[in-house]
Amino acid sequence: MRPFDYRRAGDVAQATAAAGDATAAYIAGGTNIIDLMKLEVSTPARLVDISRLPLHRITQTQDGGLRIGAMVSNSAVAADMAVRQRYPLLARAILAGASGQIRNKATVGGNLLQRTRCAWFQDISAACNKREPGAGCAAKDGPNRMNAILGVSGHCIAAHPSDMAVALRALDAQIEVTAADGATRLVAMDDFYRLPGDAPHLETCLAEGDLVTSVILPPPTAETQIYRKIRDRASYAFALVSVAAALRMQDGRIAAVRLAFGGVAPRPWNDPAVEQLLIGQPPSKDLFVHAGEALVAPAIGHGGNDFKITMVQRLLAAVLREASE
Amino acid sequence: MRLILTVNGADHAVDLDPRTTLLDALRHDLDLTGTKKGCDHGQCGACTVLVNGQRINACLALAVMHDGDEITTVEGLGEVDHLSPLQSAFLTHDGFQCGFCTPGQLVSATAMLTELHDGWASHVTENLTETLTAQPTSRAEIAERMSGNLCRCACYPGIVAAIEEVVVRSRADREAAE
Ligand SMILES: Cc1cc2nc3c(=O)[nH]c(=O)nc-3n(C[C@H](O)[C@H](O)[C@H](O)COP(=O)(O)OP(=O)(O)OC[C@H]3O[C@@H](n4cnc5c(N)ncnc54)[C@H](O)[C@@H]3O)c2cc1C
Ligand code: SF4
Ligand code: FES
Ligand code: FES
């Protein structure tokens, strides 16, 4: 690990003031950034400790939603009774990820902002455009079982690894961000992550010093919420493919549906055209097959991850069947 | 950097490079070598310690971030002639072979019992909103809740049986007390 200067922030203003340049990084739970610093993939000169900022609460919003502070641990979100009762999708997604130990340390903000990554990104001897713009991409020709099939570019095919973020996408969460000048803004999950394009080192819409302070959930709109994840072992593994669904049936037809996909794209993936195709229809096998085909129409496999193109269609059909029963 | 690490109830003043992980501080600076380093990347659980009662991986924690926190290591769970219930149960059920993962298993299981008591659900829990006493503690539940601790000797049957015994006994004790 490279040497760094350590500062602990006492409040949000101190944090953003200390982190306003390219050499600084925030550390919350540390479960991703310490890992990357040990590998010397991440080499901040200054580490700003935000773990003791007063952002540890889950509160009701006026419109009946929830505000989750950025420092709330993943475990605490999944254990919260309001989350378990009204946003089971979120609790399920978190509980399907990592381990008890990591979920205790991991924060909501850190989970959203863990790096979009692949095995080659973490190996500093391999070519990687994300680590070193212009260097090439070892994953395209190398083993790429975990890599993405949707939203990728010729420059990078890494997948966003979060389960929690997939649930937040399906629940239409908003991210509250405080900038270095103290200004606060709300960003929809849809606008939070960038696709790699020709600049895969840029992963989100955040500017230097921007701090995620809360995640805001609107009141739940669908009573049926499902999260299903396929992984290489029964527990403690990243998603090969996951599907989050929030669905409401009315008079035998799909009245509303929100879908998000994990393990398949550089960000929690969603496709409004697939949702549109389902809305107003009675559930049927043909409909679900059609939805899956539409979803993967733009997919690109790179050999080792070709199986995800079939797998995500089957998982989507299984989830839609269960949700519309 | 100077800081105080509070480990197993005792305060230790240490002077550390900010890069020092909590794991290395415990093993190298405080000579508490019960906590093991398996992977050093959050993938095995050998380094599990409690911070303010919650289990974490000490390899993915910076010591400087835990100034003032209450840290418990395997050395703080019991004494050789006064084992904790989990430690005794691991002996009874052959919950180990080489023993390398065992400190992490014991510390992790200690916190897992608290999580069960607090009614936390897991990935395999059927009903997310049931209360603690209604939560089943099947072997599948225990295995899922302990999935952050790998055992290369594959002593999983013994580990799960040991934990199951303590879960059942502590629940019975609590019911008797109520
Ligand atoms: C072995 C292992 C298995 C895992 N398995 C899974 C899995 O199955 N599913 C899954 O979803 N995840 C998994 N993870 C990833 C884990 O969930 C993340 O590491 C964790 O959520 C990151 O949160 P943190 O608070 O520790 O982040 P940190 O490591 O502290 O920070 C991560 C990044 O976010 C930035 N950051 C943190 N907080 C903020 C903030 N408030 N505002 C702005 N920037 C911020 C930091 O600067 C850093 O760049 C796994 C991790 C490990 C090590
Ligand atoms: S897929 Fe992206 S992160 Fe992985 S090696 Fe290629 S450029 Fe790097
Ligand atoms: S040494 Fe910490 S998890 Fe393996
Ligand atoms: S007893 Fe050998 S690794 Fe678990």
Which features does this protein show?
heterodimer; A: about 325 residues; alpha+beta; Enolase-like, domain 1; 11 strands; B: about 180 residues; Ubiquitin-like (UB roll); DNA polymerase, domain 1; five-stranded mixed β-sheet; 5 strands; globular; binds flavin-adenine dinucleotide; binds iron/sulfur cluster; binds FE2/S2 (inorganic) cluster
Description:
- The complex is a heterodimer of chains A (325) and B (178).
- Chain A has helices spanning 12-18, 33-38, 74-79, 81-86, 88-95, 100-105, 108-113, 164-170, 189-192, 272-278, 285-296, 307-323, and strands at residues 5-8, 24-27, 46-49, 58-60, 66-69, 174-178, 184-188, 211-217, 224-230, 241-250, 253-262.
- Chain A contains twelve helices and eleven strands.
- Chain A has a domain at 224-324: Enolase-like, domain 1 (2-Layer Sandwich).
- Chain A is globular and about 60 Å long.
- Chain A has a five-stranded antiparallel β-sheet with strand order 4-5-8-6-7. A three-stranded parallel β-sheet of chain A has the order 1-3-2, with no helix packed on it. In chain A, strands 9-10-11 form a three-stranded antiparallel β-sheet, with helices on both faces.
- Helix content of chain A is 28%, strand content 19%.
- Chain A is of the alpha+beta class and 325 residues long.
- With 178 residues, chain B is an alpha+beta fold.
- Chain B folds into two domains: 2-76, Ubiquitin-like (UB roll); 85-177, [2Fe-2S]-binding domain (DNA polymerase, domain 1), CATH 1.10.150.
- Chain B is built from five helices and five strands, in the order ββαβββαααα.
- Chain B has helices at 22-29, 85-92, 102-117, 139-145, 156-177; strands spanning 2-7, 10-15, 48-51, 54-57, 70-72.
- A five-stranded mixed β-sheet of chain B has the order 2-1-5-3-4, covered by helices on one side.
- In chain B, a hairpin with a 2-residue loop joins β1 and β2.
- Chain B starts with a strand and ends with a helix.
- The mean pLDDT of chain B is 95.
- The structure holds flavin-adenine dinucleotide, iron/sulfur cluster and FE2/S2 (inorganic) cluster (FES) (2 copies).
- Flavin-adenine dinucleotide binds at residues 25-33, 35, 50, 70, 97-98, 102, 105-107, 109-111, 113-114, 161-164, 211-212, 238 of chain A.
